């Protein structure tokens, strides 16, 4: 791949073009082997050669690689690093690292610090236990990690020996992508190539590269670690499998944007400082809707770096929490009955000349461009709506999407009144709220466009928010890699198609860009406007309306995942060389497998906790009642307890049987079985347990309650 440095990259990018005062600004980038550090540390010739190789996307020769490696090692060791790792993103939403020491024996009984160019560029982790979905058979378990020089190396501090992390891609020996980074990079290339062709026709000829940009808003919960360790469900599955609703819930709405508790604030400030050192620019923090829920948002960066930084952000959020006696929960739905957590993926396309292609501009030319790029997104989302839904499917998301707190499982686009009217007007010559003729564009062909964020719609899964689209259906625990790979690839495809159309229309319109763009936009609107919806996405009426419009409603993961290997998906991804059929199949297999095995763990945990913690509490309560003597009230209590206890016991047996089952042929059939048989069995057990929680003596109840976990800060 070629250029990822330049404008929108780590340190010169979004941040370089603004002068924000960030928290932790004085330490910003301190732990990053940034371009500035490279300039300072490398011999002049080597620095220039490295930058040139990056810009042209060519490899480094062995000599240069050695020079860079040495400078990197010396810099890292000064920061306390003793080991290095190739840091990569297998298909698990987590990152992986294998630590190697810098010191190597030199034969005379002493050791010398060594780190060669070869070690920098390529690694071979023993990678046989990462999920590969059949891409790598175990006897040929080799996978390679390859340096991604466009994402800067960094040092992860640790008082007992820091770690130099080298962002890498992870490939099989046959060259197939085993990670989330490679396809993302490929998709960025695809989009850039397609978009640049469009820009040429649209008259913007200075740009030579388009970067997709992402600013993810991360939601998370914080609870006291004492409670966490008392709950096997939380520490084995990340969510509570039991827990009655507390008397005081979310309905008071007092938490959202409320003042932040002191311990939490101290935690947030340390998180921001650590992220700042890693070159991650954090911009906002606040309380979220649910009690104990918070959010943090960085300033956007190019998709590749943003995705790397997002992985680091999740890690730092979790690490720092421990210092404050807190646990950071990134699960999509840690607590039933209160809002879950998502990750809003703010996404746009920007040129290397610093122009955001999704921002309506000041001139007719930029507005024509904007409408063209916006139309391409509408077309792409309409065509690949089911795939987009699949790209955010996981077991946690099934509790969240469509549950009146998060976008529905139906993908639609919110454009806002002004923009929707603009499209409508171009298409029909009619529109409301937009004055035809004025438009401030020097032409009456294109209407005036919204200059600010316009109205907001919190219920839409894919909303235009002034200068970007916000994909709100992403889950809080997810890597940004796959979602953005999908977004970029489908947009590349539609840009390509619309560019073809534009070039024809330009001929018809004798070179009049406005007329030609209008004609293209008109066609997109006529064909695809059904995907646009500005009403309440949570409402029952929308579900009916969406069905009438023929939009896909894929409520659960097993419904959605098959779209990853649907023919339409395979064709598009193959055409743009982002993922081959085999690579798509491998992802599909891995995601299906993750769904089933996570449910299997949840089911086992539910059964075990019910049998060994909750049932004994109920039996102790029965004992207590027996000791209390007799009387009509006591008899009533005993009967109530006995009935619920029986319900719990029955539920446990049904669940254990349901889960003790290999399932029909594995794969999506098994996943469907887990969804239809095992989940209901878990729900039955929980329902009995949650009612028991309300009648069993508080000091018998073996696990912390929702009210403790959510309200003690
Ligand atoms: P809100 O809560 O209103 O959605 P926030 O300020 O919390 O807004 O988050 C907005 C996010 O959108 C930030 O991460 C910001 O960097 C990101 N963003 C802004 N402009 C762009 C852009 N051009 N491309 C990608 N992300 C962007
Ligand atoms: Mg948002």
From TrEMBL:
TM annotation in the entry: none
Domain (GS beta-grasp): residue spans on this chain: 82-175
Domain called GS catalytic: residue spans: 180-614
Gene3D superfamilies listed in its UniProt record: 1.20.120.1560, Glutamine synthetase/guanido kinase, catalytic domain
InterPro entries referenced in this protein's UniProt entry, alphabetically: Gln-synt_C (IPR040577), Gln_synt_N (IPR008147), Gln_synth/guanido_kin_cat_dom (IPR014746), Gln_synth_cat_dom (IPR008146), GS_Type-3 (IPR052725), GSIII_N (IPR022147)
Highest taxon in the source lineage: Bacteria
UniProt similarity note: Belongs to the glutamine synthetase family.
Name of the molecule in the record: Glutamine synthetase III
Taxonomic source organism: Paraconexibacter antarcticus
């Amino acid at each position: 791949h070629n250029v990822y440095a330049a404008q929108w990259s780590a340190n010169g990018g979004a941040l370089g073009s603004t002068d924000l005062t960030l928290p932790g600004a004085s330490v910003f980038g301190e732990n990053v082997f940034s371009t500035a550090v490279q300039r300072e540390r490398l011999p002049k010739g080597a620095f220039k050669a490295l930058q040139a190789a990056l810009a042209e996307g060519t490899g480094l020769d062995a000599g240069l690689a050695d020079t860079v490696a040495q400078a990197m090692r010396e810099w890292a060791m000064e920061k306390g690093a003793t080991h290095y790792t190739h840091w990569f993103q297998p298909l698990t939403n987590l990152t992986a690292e294998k630590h190697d020491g810098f010191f190597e024996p030199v034969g005379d009984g002493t050791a010398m610090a060594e780190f060669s160019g070869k070690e920098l560029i390529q690694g071979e982790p023993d990678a046989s236990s990462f999920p590969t979905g059949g891409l790598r058979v175990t006897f040929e378990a080799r996978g390679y990690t390859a340096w991604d020089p466009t994402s800067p190396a960094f040092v992860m501090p640790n008082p007992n020996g820091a770690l130099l992390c080298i962002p890498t891609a992870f490939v099989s020996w046959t060259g197939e992508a085993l990670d989330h980074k490679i396809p993302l990079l490929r998709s960025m290339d695809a989009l850039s190539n397609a978009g640049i062709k469009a820009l040429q026709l649209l008259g913007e000829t200075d740009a030579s590269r388009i970067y997709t940009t992402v600013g993810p808003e991360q939601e998370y919960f914080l609870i006291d670690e004492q409670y966490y360790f008392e709950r096997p469900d939380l520490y084995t599955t990340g969510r509570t499998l039991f827990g009655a609703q507390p008397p005081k819930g979310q309905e008071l709405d007092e938490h959202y944007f409320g003042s932040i508790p002191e311990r939490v604030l101290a935690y947030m400030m340390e998180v921001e400082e650590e992220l700042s050192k890693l070159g991650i620019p954090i911009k906002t923090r606040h309380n979220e809707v649910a009690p104990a829920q918070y959010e943090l948002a960085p300033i956007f960066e190019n998709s590749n770096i943003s995705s790397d930084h997002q992985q680091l952000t999740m890690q730092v959020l979790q690490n720092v929490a421990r210092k404050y006696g807190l646990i950071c929960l990134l699960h999509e739905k840690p607590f039933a009955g209160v809002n879950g957590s998502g990750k809003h993926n703010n996404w746009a396309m920007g040129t290397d000349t610093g122009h955001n292609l999704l921002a309506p501009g000041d001139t007719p030319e930029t507005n024509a461009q904007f409408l063209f790029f916006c139309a391409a997104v509408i077309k792409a989302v309409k065509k690949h709506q089911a795939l987009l839904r699949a790209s955010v499917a996981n077991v946690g998301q099934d509790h969240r999407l469509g549950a009146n707190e998060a976008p529905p499982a139906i993908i639609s686009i919110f454009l806002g009144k002004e923009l929707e009217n603009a499209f409508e007007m171009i298409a029909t010559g009619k529109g409301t709220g937009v004055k035809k003729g004025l438009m401030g564009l020097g032409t009456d062909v294109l209407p005036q466009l919204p200059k600010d964020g316009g109205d907001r719609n919190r219920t839409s899964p894919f909303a235009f928010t002034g200068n970007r689209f916000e994909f709100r259906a992403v889950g809080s625990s997810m890597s940004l890699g796959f979602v953005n790979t999908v977004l970029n690839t489908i947009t590349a495809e539609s840009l390509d198609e619309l560019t073809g159309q534009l070039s024809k229309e330009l001929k018809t319109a004798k070179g009049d860009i406005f007329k030609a763009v209008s004609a293209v936009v008109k066609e997109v609107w006529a064909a695809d406007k059904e995907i646009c919806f500005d009403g309440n996405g949570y409402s029952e009426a929308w579900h009916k309306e969406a069905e009438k419009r023929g939009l896909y409603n894929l409520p659960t993961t097993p419904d959605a995942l098959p779209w990853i290997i649907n023919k339409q998906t395979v064709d598009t991804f193959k055409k743009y060389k982002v993922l081959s059929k085999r690579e798509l199949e491998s992802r599909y297999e891995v995601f299906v497998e993750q769904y089933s095995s996570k449910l299997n763990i949840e089911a086992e945990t539910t059964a075990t906790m019910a049998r060994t913690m909750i049932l004994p509490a109920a039996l102790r309560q029965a004992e207590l009642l027996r000791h209390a003597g007799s009387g009509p009230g006591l008899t009533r209590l005993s009967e109530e307890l006995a009935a619920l206890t029986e319900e719990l016991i029955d539920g446990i047996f049904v669940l254990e049987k349901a889960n003790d089952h290999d399932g029909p042929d594995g794969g999506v059939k098994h996943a469907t079985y887990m969804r239809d048989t095992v989940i209901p069995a878990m729900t039955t057990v929980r329902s009995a347990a949650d009612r028991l929680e309300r009648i069993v003596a508080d000091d018998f109840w073996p696990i912390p309650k929702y009210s403790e976990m959510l309200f003690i800060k």
